[in-house]
Amino acid sequence: MEIDNLVTNLEKIGFSKLESQIYLALLEGGNRSAYQIAKKINISRPSIYNALEHMVMKGMVEVIPNSTALYIAEKPEVLIKKVQYEFDSNAKKVSEGLNEFKETRYEEHFANISGFEAILYKAKDIIANAQREVYLNSDFDLEYLTEDIRKLTDRGIRVVTFSFYDIGMTIKKVEFYSHMRKMREGHVPSRLMVVVDQTIVLVADASKNQEKWIGTVTNNPLMIKIMSEHIHNDIYLLKLREKYGKEIDDLFHIGTDYETRESEAEI
């Protein structure tokens, strides 16, 4: 590898350009004094002394006491282990600090998403970070999310899914609740709800009055609670219907326009 490339790569792992040049000069020529290093790379001795002092402190080079101090480069394999350890240690501290900073500065956010594909990508993104439970409500074949859901179940994440339709759920570890309605010819998907760990929710839909899918993703606690309740209540009603039959529906009707609209939609 050319020396310029080596200098560039050393800079990427925390060396300054001068430190890179010094280290390579020592690695190439063995023990050298500050004077010899300065002459080799054509840099003034005061700059070399300052850099060497810093490099000794960081474990990049070692100094051999003599009538004239000599410097030797740390072995590459040892040096890289030191750099890796230091990076991992600092990264851990930064990660802990950022998480603590984030937790103490909670902010609610709402983000609007437009288009079916964009909404699917956002769904994939939020469920990929699930740690405990994911709730889903959909009226379209979840083959779009099959691999994402399988990765969740493989990690032991609980996945609870509800749909009024037979949406082709074949992943055994998923808790699937459905009225198993057959999709009519020309069925147009119009609903997706995703709740992840009770911390974030995605709600999206399409209708005859909309040209394309529109969705919202938010960490708003009330929206998360409402969507979680919605999915759970659909499952509860399904269980009651399975036990007591369709007549159970009459017990819950209160005669609103919403109920009329939903009944007409099922015809």
From TrEMBL:
Annotated Transcription regulator TrmB C-terminal domain residues: 112-228
Superkingdom, natural source: Bacteria
Pfam families named among the record's database cross-references: Regulator_TrmB, TrmB
Domain Transcription regulator TrmB N-terminal positions: 10-77
InterPro entries: TrmB-like, Tscrpt_reg_TrmB_C, Tscrpt_reg_TrmB_N, WH-like_DNA-bd_sf, WH_DNA-bd_sf
PANTHER family: HTH-TYPE TRANSCRIPTIONAL REGULATOR TRMBL2 (PTHR34293:SF1)
Protein name stated in the entry: TrmB family transcriptional regulator
Native species: Clostridium cibarium
